[in-house]
Amino acid sequence: MPELPEVETIKRTLSPLLKGRLIKEIKVGLGKLLLPGEKEFIARVAGRRFLDLKRKGKYLICLLSGGTAVIVHFRLTGQLIYVNGQKPLPPHTHLRFFLDRGELLYVDLRQFGRLEALAAKDLKDHPQLKELGPEPFALNERDFYGLLQKSSRPLKALLLDQKVISGLGNIYVDESLFRAGLHPKRPGKELSLPEASRLLAVIKEILAEAISDGGSSVRNYVDGQGQRGRFQEKHRVYGRRGKPCPRCGQTLAYTKIAQRGTHFCPACQK
Ligand SMILES: [Zn+2]
Question: Average pLDDT, stretch 78-95?
């Protein structure tokens, strides 16, 4: 599932290609992907221009002319790819936005993603967007420490909770806890201020590195031009269950916390 660095990369790669483009026609292969429904979506979106692209947590938000917005929920396997010229369509292409230059495709193997059209003025009241906690980059160490202090839940569950902090998913939580040397089961409120500061610094560092590497392509993630990311090559624990810890050599462990597979080093993470 695209997390903050992947959605940020999609936004950065698509922005220069889409800004100012007119949506001439929408060809719908799978209407269930469109909210509030296929007819309403087309009525709101066709004939508009892309003005700007924003990201909030793991959501991409397209601001269109006429006071319209589209929220893209990528979920597990959603992809938004700009193409220009004759190329075979990728498998699982379900939506085609024909533009005045090129074409924007929505591709989704598992079909859990959604594109939601609404009035831009309603974005601030959108139930899912409204609930999102602050982004890591917007937090200082005191705020972050305060968030952790409020909860006895394990760090892994806390950091995955989009209402507490937005943008992190399984990959970047596991990688951050490893780099910070913190056990994923540690209760949030047990962290000292220096530990919380170190964790926040590491989260920001890893997200920044992942963005500059174009995200992590662990399943099928690609950017807005269909290119794979490179940060997966730098993962130190995520997806490396049973392999030696890159720091101490002990076998990396795997467990479930908050129903999510969790990779960690039992020796390095206290
Ligand atoms: Zn280790």
Answer: 94
